Amino acid sequence: MTQTGQLRLGVNIDHVATVRNARGGAYPDPIRAAKLAEEAGADGITAHLREDRRHISDADIDGLMENLSVPLNFEMAATDEMQKIALRHKPHAVCIVPEKREEKTTEGGLEVAREENKLAHFIAPLREAGCRVSIFIAADQRQIEAAHRIGAQVIELHTGAYCDFHAEGHFDKRDAELERMREMAAYAHSLGLEVHAGHGLTYDTVQPVAAFPEVMELNIGHFLVGEAIFRGLGPAISEMRRLMDAART
Ligand code: PXP
How confident is the model at residue 108 (pLDDT cuts 50, 70, 90)? Predict the structure, then answer.
């Protein structure tokens, strides 16, 4: 059974690369941002190498693997190309996410239940290579059970809908989604899965999720990179860390 305990913060640096790529060239450097995040208390760095390379590049992944002192959580779609890249680098963790070219960001959770056999075969070599395999899913019992059956060690609950309802002022729907996530975090934990959460979290929305005792890790990116414009990346991360720790106690 997975233990509950200290909540980890994974800082997602994709959108440092988005700003860099808006102009081409080398600035701002995602590796420098990752090192700063480490200094500011990030327990891990998350980066999503998308099929279209719209933000993180292959060279960024090389640089992260060479330079990080904290674990890399490599987000990837379930494609042969990404599997090869992951097996070459053998990052500490891989998180399998759905990916559509036309989407602005990862819009929904992975459909595990329908793709169970395919995904079981897909993640087996990653597990054998020593990567901790996480599956990014909605708070849905069917998907959690399927993630468990295919041999994932971790599920990451998609907090995007909860955050969107909050931003749009649909507080009844937000609270219902939060309740669903609370129940599903406990359910996944009871199956022996480690539970993570992320997507769209901000200072306003992080604490109710951080308070779930089963959640071991939050992965947060876009808001922190935006907030860094106003207060700097280190202070933006420190404040998120403070809010997470306060919610946990
Ligand atoms: N977790 C997963 C699986 C994601 O795909 C993303 C976005 O790349 C995040 C967390 C972080 O989301 P955000 O950038 O909105 O904080």
Answer: confident
DSSP E strand boundaries for the chain: 8-12, 44-48, 72-76, 93-96, 132-137, 154-158, 194-198, 215-220
**Phi, psi (5° rounding) for residue 44?**
-165, 165
Mean pLDDT, rounded, for 202-230: 98
- Model pTM? 0.96
pLDDT at 4: 44
Establish whether 222 is an annotated binding residue.
yes
- How high is the pLDDT of residue 6? 81
Residue 75 among the catalytic residues: yes
Assess contact for 198 and 178: CB atoms under 8 A. no
Q: Whose CA is nearest to atom 7 of ligand 1?
A: 199
Q: Is 89 within 8 Å of 45 (Cβ atoms)?
A: no
- φ, ψ of residue 132 to 5 degrees: the values are -80, 125
Span 81-89, average pLDDT: 98
- CA 31, 33, 37, 42 dihedral sign is negative
> Considering the chain, what is the average pLDDT of its residues?
95
Q: How many CB atoms lie within 10 A of CB 1?
A: 8
β-sheet bridge partners, residue 47? 74
CA of 242 to the centre of ligand 1 (A): 20
Separation of alpha carbons 197 and 216, rounded Å: 8
Q: For the chain, list the domains and their CATH numbers.
A: 8-248 (3.20.20.70)
Atom of ligand 1 nearest to the CA of 15: 14
Q: Which two tokens stand for residue 101?
A: 């070219």
